[in-house]
Amino acid sequence: MLEERYPEVKCGLDWGGEDEYKLLIMSILSAQCTDARVNIVSKTLFERFPTACDMAKASLEDIENEIRSVGLYHSKARALKECCERLVEVYGGKLPSEMKELLTLRGVGRKVANLLRGDIFNLGGIVADTHCIRISNRLGLASGSDPLKTEKALSKLIPTEKQSDFCHRIVMFGREVCTARTPKCDECTIKQYCEYKK
Q: Is 111 a catalytic residue?
C-alpha cells in the first residue's frame, strides 16, 4: 500500500545518484539534522572539498566553517576528516560495500551503512531511523526502540531487493502522515494494520 502511495521514491539527500563520496558525507552530516539543511550545506561543502582526498587533507577549522549550521559541527567535522583519511589510506578513496568494512569508517554506524549499501550497491538494508522504528512499532512489525532489533525484525519481513525503497517510503509516510506527535490517522491508507491508539 505504501508502494501505491509512493510509486517513485528516492533518498531525501540530494547526492545525485552517482558520486558515492557525496552520499557518505551527507549521511554523516544528517545525524540529528534535516535532509533539507544537509542538502543546502553540501552544495558549498562539495565545491570546497570535491573528493575524499580533498576532505582528508582539509583542516578541521575549514570543515567546521562549511558545516557550522548542521549542528554538532565540531564532532561531525572530526568524523568527516577521519572518515575520509581512512577511506583514502585503506580503500584508495573507493567506498567499500561490506558492512564490516563500512563500520570501520568514522561516523558510519549501521543506519548509515545500510543506507549506503542499499542506495549505492543495491544490496538492501533496513535503515532503522526514527520514522522506521516508530511506524514499525505502530504496525506491530517490530517492538521497542532498539534500532538493531528493528533492523533484524524488518530484514526477515522485507525482501532484500525491496528494503531500500521500503525505507525511503517509510520516511515519506512518517513525515506526511504517520508523524510522531499528531499522526493523521484519517488520511492513513494502512490504518487497518495499525495498533496506535490516540
A: yes
